[in-house]
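Task 17 of the worksheet. Students: predict the tertiary structure of the chain below and write it out as structure tokens. Keep your answer in the requested format; marks are given for formatting as well as content.
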Amino acid sequence: MSRERQAMQSDRAPASQTYARVVPGAGVGIMLFAMTLSSIVLLAIKASGAEAPKARIVGLGATSCQQFNDDIKSNPALRRDYLAWAQGFMSGIILSRPPGVDQGLDLAPKTFDLISQLHFLEDHCARNTAPDFSDAVEALYKRLRLEGKT
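Model answer:
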């Protein structure tokens, strides 16, 4: 090998070093591009899920308030079944709360007994036929929370 050729080869750097010499700061630029792209993706995900997804409700609570109205009108005995579902659903709400929140909340206080709760649900669904029955139960739960504070 000639002396000139050896000198040329010793001056050559690996391709990654050559690229870095040709484009100073390219590694930083690529890293900034990747971070920017990641940020955009994360913001898009966050924006699309701004509200926490609602749990899938099953059973009587999955019906609309209009269906509840129709059911109890055609078969008054179903009122008991709907109320039992509501009590179970509200018990689930209490269990999902962080420690100390709604702890000891009475779902059947003497000041707002089960018959009063059933009337609350009937009145709520008579005024709001479109929402689900579970939404009426959530409104009842909020009412019971107020009752517990008095």
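Marker's comment: The chain has seven helices and no strands. Confidence is low (pLDDT under 50) at residues 33-39, 41-48.
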